[in-house]
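Hi! If you just cloned this repository, the fastest way to understand the data is to look at a raw example. We've pasted two of them here, unedited. The first protein comes first, obviously.
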Amino acid sequence: MQSVRGFYESGLGDRLTNPFYYPTNIVDFRRHEKQIIIAIQSSFDLLIEVGCAGECYLDWAVAHKKRYIGIDIVERNVKIGQQRVINQGLSEDIYRFIVGDGENLTAIIHPSELPVPVGRCLLLFPFNSFGNMQHPHKVLASLQSLKLPFLISSYQTTSNAIVYRQEYYQRCLYQDLHILFQQEGVCFTSSNGFYSMAYHPDYFYQLCQQHQLPITVTLARCFMNATYDVS
């Protein structure tokens, strides 16, 4: 069984952000996620997207006159993003892509070097990218250190959400899917390295409290959670 990093570097993870594989409920999830970002867009000038592979928010940022930084663990995805910037004739200073690990954001982002004040940033973890990282404590420690406003979009742990996720992952042709019901939440794994955790809201709230991160958890009808601190 290959590692989670190897899973994404192999290209198997590309299916997760390819609309060809989206069931109707995943389409609704992505639509609601975008609606939340639109609702708070007046609060930020720089969007930093952690896990920007595939259908990233670059075009949205351009259309809404926001600066953008895309971060992804796979160098190939970053190069694709950089080429999109060049192809669209955009400024490479305003629209940037960086290779990096969401579990070590402090090595990538330096608040004093950002082009806008810290309070005018939004650190976005889209489409359950947070749940695809195996060491949440490291991510939350980075958030506590950076003190940037953030938004985490994730799956709920309801029975319907589990059914919808299973259909989605099966469409992605991931082999030997397993569902693990844990104290932290509901985790899907596969024999080819796929890993995706959906945290129970109460557990995640407690996790954030341990790192002194004040958060609000909003539940949407499309089986998504939106966890955010945009103070």
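Ok, and the second one:
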Amino acid sequence: MEADIARVLFREAAILGRLDELALQITSDYRDRELTVVAILNGSFIFMADLLRRVPLPLQLDSWSVSSYHGTKTSGTIQFRQTQIADVRGRHVLLLDDILDSGLTLQAIRDRMEKESGAASVRSCVLLRKMVPRTCPMEADYVGFDIPDEFVVGYGLDYNERYRNLPYIGILTGEAIRRNAR
């Protein structure tokens, strides 16, 4: 797998240091509130685990399985893999996602959460924000890192279900993309 990485953008130590900063900000913002965290799977599970261990607040946790990527590009179609959402009436919800790219997925989740849940508030936190024009005007409330318009893997992010277990975030080689294409 290491040979498939053209360049490492963020090593594990840098990621964990940034998570410490995000956790301090989230803890301060949600002190004395009923917090529910909704993680968007599968890409955010490593990010979620490492971030939430740093947030010393009582919270509820749920996850949604949602996808929009096929290969290295977003399909533009959002697939919700479950029909029921968590009971968050009157609670403050923090959506966790791995990457903000087109904005379509996070906007669809936020819209559904706001319309169907009765939540007191809905905010979002992403590990990565790709610096590209958004298809919709979605921005995250908390951002780990800004990245260039490159396809990245590692730390939960995948390419065709591979590379999630890398402890860093990197850019695949063209050869690795061709070899692992479906």
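That's it. A detail worth noticing about the second one: The longest strand covers residues 59-70.
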